[in-house]
């Protein structure tokens, strides 16, 4: 994506004092005179920032302002290693709220809505980000946090919530609980804002149909404010990114070279206004592409496609590389397969065994036909033949947070 004049002006303004303010970037850009960065070509020669770099300066090595300017910290979960601590100034918090309020507005949500927030609070950026945006918009925030499904449904009915904010996994769990209890006619939801994990078309359709809502994908990551730096619009063709706050590149994950708009690769983000912990050329490991051309919704903000997955999501089985998005595509094309699936990878008797469990309403011979069809489509689209096993609807686990779908038991 071409850097605009406005974006480049913000980047160069940051660069004037970045190495003085940030010990992290003084070390990262040692030997580089940032005043020499005068073109996009110059910018693309700068080294990337990686999550491992951020972990190495734990806890507050990213901080680029004095302590008295820091009003809050957030943190990544740390489930895959040392957590990353991100300090925020008051301006950072305000900027995040502005972006999140824009997300709600893009989804057609107004200050007359009642927004039920189910993602977690605490060091994680999710719940408080959804709340920040709601308050900035002037809407009624209902800060439930995760879990306690019965209380969620009670509040949803009593307070007549019109917007649900959730992970796709928890939105599905709520949708199934509403259907099971037969209280759909008492639910006033009209919109769903869903984030934090990728999800397939069948899951999207199930949630939308069972809740009776229009769904929007929201994007963000803890290191870059949190959720709210982009969202899908009514066209549902990619996610608009707030390019006056972040600059996006797509690079080849192997070579690190920029790819043309429209080609898939790894998303790299540069913050344009962040004070507490600015990030330059940060590798997100999220796989997507820039969608070229203007969106029919009329917004001038550029779009990235819905995420394919992550570079670290890829698994190799029987010599074939596969991503969750490809498995979800197989599920989508298999008649009789519902949205939920689970993949088990084992190594037995000297060879890899790939088993795909999927939910289906089919039984007996019909279930066997669906299993055979899924295995056939899987072979055609991905390149290896799995053991396909249909199970009853609701048999696979549901989660209040993110649902783990691929279990690699070989190591």
Automatic annotation (TrEMBL):
Signal peptide: none annotated. SUPFAM superfamilies: Acetyl-CoA synthetase-like. It is an enzyme of class 6 (ligase). It comes from the Bacteria. Belongs to the phenylacetyl-CoA ligase family. Keywords: Ligase, Nucleotide-binding, Phosphopantetheine, Phosphoprotein. GO terms for molecular function: nucleotide binding; phenylacetate-CoA ligase activity. This is Phenylacetate-coenzyme A ligase. It comes from Gordonibacter massiliensis (ex Traore et al. 2017). Monomer. It holds the Pfam family AMP-binding.
């Amino acid at each position: 994506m071409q850097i605009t004049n406005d974006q480049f002006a913000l980047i160069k303004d940051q660069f004037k004092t970045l190495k003085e303010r940030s010990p992290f970037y003084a070390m990262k850009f040692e030997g580089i005179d940032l005043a020499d960065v005068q073109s996009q070509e110059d910018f693309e020669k700068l080294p990337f920032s990686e999550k491992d770099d951020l972990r190495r300066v734990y806890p507050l090595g990213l901080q680029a302002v004095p302590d008295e300017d820091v009003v809050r910290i957030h943190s990544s979960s740390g489930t895959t290693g040392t957590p990353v601590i991100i300090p925020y100034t008051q301006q950072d918090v305000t900027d995040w709220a502005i972006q999140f309020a824009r997300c709600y507005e893009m989804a057609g949500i107004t200050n007359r809505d009642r927004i039920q927030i189910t993602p977690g609070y605490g060091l994680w950026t999710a719940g408080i980000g959804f709340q920040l945006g709601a308050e900035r918009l002037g809407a009624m925030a209902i800060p439930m946090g995760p879990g306690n499904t019965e209380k969620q449904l009670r509040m949803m009915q009593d307070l007549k919530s019109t917007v649900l904010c959730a992970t796709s996994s928890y939105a599905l769990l709520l949708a199934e609980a509403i259907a099971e209890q037969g209280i759909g006619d008492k639910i006033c939801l009209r919109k769903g804002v869903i984030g934090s994990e990728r999800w397939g078309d069948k899951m999207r359709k199930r949630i939308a149909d069972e809740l009776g809502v229009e769904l929007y994908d929201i994007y963000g990551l803890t290191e870059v404010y949190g959720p709210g730096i982009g969202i899908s619009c009514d066209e549902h063709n990619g996610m608009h990114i707030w390019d006056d706050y972040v600059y996006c590149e797509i690079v080849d994950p192997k070579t690190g070279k920029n790819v043309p708009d429209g080609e898939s690769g790894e998303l790299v983000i540069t913050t344009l206004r962040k004070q507490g912990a600015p990030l330059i050329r940060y590798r997100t490991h999220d796989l997507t592409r820039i969608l070229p051309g203007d969106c029919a919704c009329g917004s001038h903000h550029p779009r990235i496609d819905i995420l394919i997955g992550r570079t670290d999501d890829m698994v190799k089985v029987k010599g074939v590389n596969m991503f969750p998005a490809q498995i979800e595509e197989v599920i989508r094309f298999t008649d009789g397969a519902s949205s939920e699936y689970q993949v088990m990878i084992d190594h037995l008797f000297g060879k890899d065994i790939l088993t795909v469990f999927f939910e289906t309403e089919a039984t007996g011979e019909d279930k066997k036909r669906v299993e055979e069809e899924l295995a056939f489509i899987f072979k055609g689209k991905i390149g290896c033949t799995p053991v396909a096993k249909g199970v009853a609807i609701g048999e696979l686990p549901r989660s209040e947070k993110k649902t783990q779908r691929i279990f690699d038991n070989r190591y």
